[in-house]
Design brief:
- With 331 residues, the protein is α/β, with parallel strands linked by helices.
- 36% of the residues lie in helices and 13% in strands.
- The protein folds into two domains: 6-100 and 294-328, Rossmann fold; 103-285, NAD(P)-binding Rossmann-like Domain (Rossmann fold, 3-Layer(aba) Sandwich).
- It has 13 helices and twelve strands.
- A seven-stranded parallel sheet has the order 8-7-6-9-10-11-12, sandwiched between helices.
- Strand 7, helix 8 and strand 8 (193-195) form a beta-alpha-beta unit.
- Helix 5 crosses helix 7 (158-171).
- The chain is globular, with a radius of gyration of 22 Å.
Length: 331
């Protein structure tokens, strides 16, 4: 028998991180990387004090009530729309995420996705692979420039600012942005960024990048009405969360205008992708890999482990989402 806490690692992660956690806890891991169904997840959490979760696991009041011994939910992601944070707080459960460690890697990817859409990279590659390239033509796969174009960013947090920095400093792009709160003047100056309302952002951006968190308020923040306001020939890139864009409306805008192209790393109902998007040649589609470098994914796993170890040892986790839960802890 052991008095060490038991934890669940819901999806496969680095074996070295699993071994580190075994030094602190009784660990049930998932090396086969099966996605647990709802009932199975609840059952596997029975008796567990903590869980390392991903976006695949919905942590809500029902699950928490079925597992009242649970004390820490540690997401291996910066986003946490899969976690009902108020429900966790009400039950004394600490919730954590993995911010900062993926900022630069995700910004790299977002910028790459935007460039691939603007310059028709995947569309032209498919053309070449099909054996259709027979000769040069002046109008073959003409895209739109990135350098000097206006970069629009919706959601100017860590990743948004990192994308703005790449555009402003690397590509000479004037930056416009819309956010819930305006950045300090010195930050705007460093990023060559100008705060605008959402309508202006849509109207003036040559390349619009979405980096805002998902919430009920941001659901379909970009729908048919917003797409209709965008500049003819503009591109749209989403490296935030599925559901921020109305994917059906986007597919229609890619077919009928006004926008020229899109780059998407996230989707409504992923891993399913709206069939109409799959039919569009002018959209670059990737399977939610924005943070997918070896160094960054390892840093995310390590931070999730740090959070869980701290939470279950009486310390404050490094990236606690709901610090108010600490006030309810017994002294």
């Amino acid at each position: 028998m052991t008095d060490r806490p038991s934890i669940l690692i819901a999806r496969a992660i680095f074996p070295e991180v699993v071994a580190r956690l075994r030094g602190h806890f009784e660990v049930e891991d998932n090396p086969g990387d099966q996605i647990h169904g709802r009932a199975e997840l609840i059952a596997r959490l029975h008796g567990k004090r903590g869980v390392i979760a991903t976006g695949s696991e919905r942590i809500d009041a029902e699950l928490l009530d079925a597992n009242p011994q649970l004390r820490a939910v540690c997401n291996m992601a910066v986003g946490y729309n899969n976690i009902d944070v108020p429900a966790c707080t009400a039950r004394g459960v600490m919730a954590t995420n993995t911010p900062d460690v993926l900022t630069e890697t995700t910004a790299d990817f977002g910028f790459a996705l935007m460039m691939a859409a603007a310059r028709r990279i995947t569309e032209s590659e498919r053309f070449l692979r099909r054996g259709e390239w027979q000769r040069w033509a002046y109008d073959m796969f003409m895209g739109c420039d990135v350098h000097g174009a206006t970069l629009g960013i919706l959601g100017m947090g860590r990743i948004g600012q990192a994308i703005a920095r790449r555009g402003a400093l690397g590509f000479g792009m004037p930056v416009i942005y819309h956010n819930r709160s305006r950045l300090p003047a010195e930050t705007e100056a460093a990023l060559n960024a100008r705060y605008v309302d959402k309508a202006t952002l849509l109207r003036e951006a040559d390349h619009l990048v979405l980096v805002l968190p998902y919430s009920a308020e941001s659901h379909h923040a970009i729908g048919a009405a917003e797409l209709a306001q965008m500049k003819p020939g503009a591109t749209l890139t989403n490296v935030a969360r599925g559901g921020i864009v109305d994917d059906a409306a986007l597919a229609a805008a890619l077919r009928d205008g006004p926008i020229a192209a899109a780059g998407l790393d996230v989707f409504e109902g992923e891993p399913q992708v709206h069939p109409a998007l799959l039919e569009r040649p002018n959209v670059v589609l990737t399977p939610h890999i924005g943070s997918g470098s070896l160094r960054t994914r390892r840093a995310m796993a390590d931070l999730a482990a740090d959070n869980l170890i701290a939470a279950l040892s009486g310390a404050r986790p490094p990236s606690l989402i709901n610090p108010e839960v600490l006030a309810a802890r017994p002294a």
